[in-house]
Description:
By secondary structure, the chain is an alpha+beta fold. Helix content is about 65%, strand content about 10%. The chain contains 10 helices and 5 strands.
Amino acid sequence: MAAPSRALTPRQRQADALLALVVFVSGVISAALSAISELYGEEQAPLWQALVYIAVIAAPLAFRRVWPASVAVIVCVAYFLAVTMRLPELYAGNIAMFIALYSVGAWMSNRRAAMIVRVAIITGMFIWLLVSVYRDAIETARDEEIIAGALSPYLAYMVLNLMINVLYFAGAYFFGEHAWRSAMQRQALEQRTADLEREREVTAAQAVALDRVRIARELHDVVAHHVSVMGVQAGAARMIVDQDPAASKEILGGVEQSAREAIDELHHLLETLRSSDTEAEDASTLGLSDIPALIEASSAAGLATRFTVIGEERDVPSVVQVNLYRIAQEALTNARRHAGPPATADVRLRYTDGAIELDVVNTGRHALSPRPGMGQLGMRERAIASGGTLESGPREQGGWRVRARVPLHAPALIGGAGA
């Protein structure tokens, strides 16, 4: 027989053991009273046989959820024998059989087998009941010298008894099926709840990971740009400090200004991280209007840089502005690092009918392959987060080109914006 699909708890096992005990005690009382009242008259079997019968139908109920089909077969066969042998007990047996049939429907995991077991038991019981009714009706009619027909009182009583049995077995079948469906619905609900909980945990972990990536990207952009500028300026000041103190002083002033800007951006980044406001518009104060200052800082750091705006300027979402500014900043930082001293850079911001494009082209050394690192990844992520694309690679004549294109009608992905 199929085992139950739901694991039993100690409380359920205790409840089944208690149920078996209650049925046994009730059956003993019922058998004693039935024997005293001579339920079957002179054909009644001895009381001790009824007590054995009660033990046979009560004990299996303690395992009704473990082996529901086996328990149902044992109880029903015992009930059939008890009635056939005229054992003085009916009521506890009826209750035990109802519980057994109910348990098959409520706890048997193989639903096809559960249906077959119940249909077989119910069909067998009804065949036996019809045969008994017909036999008893004929014998009663013969004894009373009447014809057994529709108006026979005994036959009417047996038809009533048959209707009661129909309700009895139908109730056991229905309530068992209902209990199974309810249990499956609860199990499905619990599974969905567990899935949602796991999904929530995964989402939370992903959010933490995204925040870490965003923080690392912002720190990289701020630190790499300003520190590289300060390094170049400090080196230039060191080289001319003896020959031209005034120029060296001016360059050191640029170093100081770069340090202040870096500190200001770091302060803003920390304030954004501490704030509960997640609106992308407040993610950064930087935008396209700050690119000219970025160009001046790049030129002051030793990379001669030009800036050109092509097309009619239009409103650009703040998230896109932040990302384009950071892309330009990273591209110029990489140019200062890798292009060499005589290199120059050209930054172009182009407005087209449906998009905005940023081109950062620098001259300098030939590069054989894309430069690995967080800077390249960060630029690409920012372009994708804005709903656009990024092209980054070496130029045949030397140097590097970064080209970002962002459709203005496409919504930016807020999660990709930097703080």
